[in-house]
């Protein structure tokens, strides 16, 4: 499966050959496991992946979904908490993608799925020290700097809650 997928990726020019090989190596186990559990028949899977020349797949096909006969509950608008109700500070970090191979000064535009890697280059269009808005993930020192700026205490007193400098009751990192 891996050899076929890698060859197909290269023949369809989805990515450069080394990227095709690396992507297949990285994901082939997951893809095979998903296909083994799939309800799609082979022609449907082929049509989904490669288009109508290979098979037929219709997202609006024969779906059968039964809903319970119970009536929908009435809508109750939320009520705000009363003045003086306790509060908590929550930290929510999301989409902090770390690239172990990030190189400041490397090309920020490239034909690969992920750039800002490899040799240094001169001129505009290079990866910045803290990161670059392009096809790049973040260098570790950017994430370290972000976390270093956060309060390091999880306790909060009435003073710290009011001036916004206290710790967090919980942190979610997704």
UniProtKB/TrEMBL annotation:
<dbReference type="GO" id="GO:0005615">
    <property type="term" value="C:extracellular space"/>
</dbReference>
<dbReference type="GO" id="GO:0005764">
    <property type="term" value="C:lysosome"/>
</dbReference>
<dbReference type="GO" id="GO:0016020">
    <property type="term" value="C:membrane"/>
</dbReference>
<keyword id="KW-0378">Hydrolase</keyword>
<dbReference type="GO" id="GO:0061750">
    <property type="term" value="F:acid sphingomyelin phosphodiesterase activity"/>
</dbReference>
<keyword id="KW-0325">Glycoprotein</keyword>
<protein>
    <submittedName>
        <fullName>ASM phosphodiesterase</fullName>
    </submittedName>
</protein>
<dbReference type="GO" id="GO:0006685">
    <property type="term" value="P:sphingomyelin catabolic process"/>
</dbReference>
<dbReference type="GO" id="GO:0046513">
    <property type="term" value="P:ceramide biosynthetic process"/>
</dbReference>
């Amino acid at each position: 499966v891996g050899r076929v997928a890698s060859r197909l990726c290269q023949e369809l020019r989805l990515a450069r050959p080394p990227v095709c090989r690396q992507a297949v190596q990285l994901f082939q186990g997951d893809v095979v496991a998903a296909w083994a559990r799939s309800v799609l028949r082979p022609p449907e899977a082929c049509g989904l992946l490669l288009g109508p020349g290979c098979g037929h797949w219709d997202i609006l096909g024969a779906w059968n979904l039964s809903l319970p006969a119970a009536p929908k509950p009435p809508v109750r608008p939320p009520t705000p908490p009363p003045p003086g109700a306790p509060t908590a500070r929550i930290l929510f970090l999301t989409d902090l993608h770390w690239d172990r191979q990030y190189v400041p000064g490397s090309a920020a535009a490239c034909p690969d799925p992920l750039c800002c890697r490899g040799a240094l280059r001169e001129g505009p269009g290079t990866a910045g020290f803290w990161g670059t808005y392009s096809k790049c993930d973040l260098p570790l020192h950017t994430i370290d700097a972000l976390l270093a700026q956060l309060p390091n205490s999880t306790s909060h007193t009435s003073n710290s809650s009011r001036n916004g400098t206290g710790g967090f009751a919980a942190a979610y990192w997704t």
